[in-house]
Amino acid sequence: MDNNGLVLCSVMVQPVRQRILKSILTWLDIISVVPNHTFVVEEAAIPLDRTEPSGYWYCAGDFCDIDEAGVHQHIEDANISLAKCLVSPDIKDDHELRPVLVIAGEYSVNYVCHNIANRVLYATPNHLTLGDIEIPKNGYSAVIKSTLGVYGQNKVEWKRRQKNCSQSLIDEYTPDKPGGSGPDLDEQRREIDKIHIAACHGDEQKARNLTNALSTVDYEFLKRTEQTVQKYEEGLVNLRNILN
Q: Among 117, 142, 130, 112, which residue's Cα sits nearest to residue 30?
């Protein structure tokens, strides 16, 4: 088993991610006011080569070193072979095979940085997500409640990536927690529960009350983002024209 550390990094978007900032002016302004750029690095690859980094998962936008001002870091053990199988590292935004090697779809419509980070984190014991990790990740709760969910809008594409990776690697890191492989909607609800429990400082009863109180709002929000993605796929919203 190819074990090593994954370094999860998070940094506030505005100072360092101009390309992402442009995207935020489109439909992402629906779900977050101050989102963070989140990315993952293989611990063994540090220090990074700034010109040609290796073991670096580009989420969106330009390269950001882990030692830049304002970057928060969190280390988790992971099966690096599985991580690289699920999401190819060192693939920039303009790589022609990025939809095949990293994630399918259009940034800010079908996925955001948080979704790619969760895909890499799937290689950790118990398939951790950002909801399990205490690192600044403003906007994540809104991403989870949108059509993007935990791993991105394209659920079929994500399942195929899991299937195509070595099943022995997946099995070795099967979650111990109940219901870890349930339907997508249940997965999304579990992630929301994690966020609400953290917001309630571990008080599960308060978290359940919060979930119930927000259920109608969350449902309406999910439908709204689904409609946004549908409009884009039908050609009613041209994201490229907006960004150029």
A: 142
Which residues 6+ apart lie within 8 Å of 42 measured at CB? 4, 5, 6, 7, 54, 55, 56, 80, 83, 89
Count Cα neighbours of 233 within 13 Å in the Cβ-side half-sphere: 11
CA distance 118 to 38: 10
**Residue 181: exposure state from Cβ atoms within 10 A (0-12, 13-18, ≥19):** exposed
Cis ω on the peptide bond leading into residue 89 (within 30° of 0)?
no
Q: Is 90 left (phi over 0), alpha (psi -120 to 50) or beta?
A: left
Which residue type is seen at 111? Y
Distance CA 106, CA 27 (A): 12
Query: Which of these, 6, 13, 44, lies nearest to 140 by C-alpha position?
Result: 13
Check: CB of residue 112 under 8 Å from CB of residue 143: yes
Please state whether the predicted TM-score (pTM) of the whole model is above 0.70: yes
DSSP 143: H
Number of helices (H) and strands (E) in the chain: give both, helices first.
11, 4
Q: What do you get for the CA distance between the two ends of the chain, in Å? A: 45
pLDDT digits (tens, 9 = 90+) for 129-183: 999 998 888 788 888 988 899 999 999 999 999 998 866 565 555 555 443 444 5
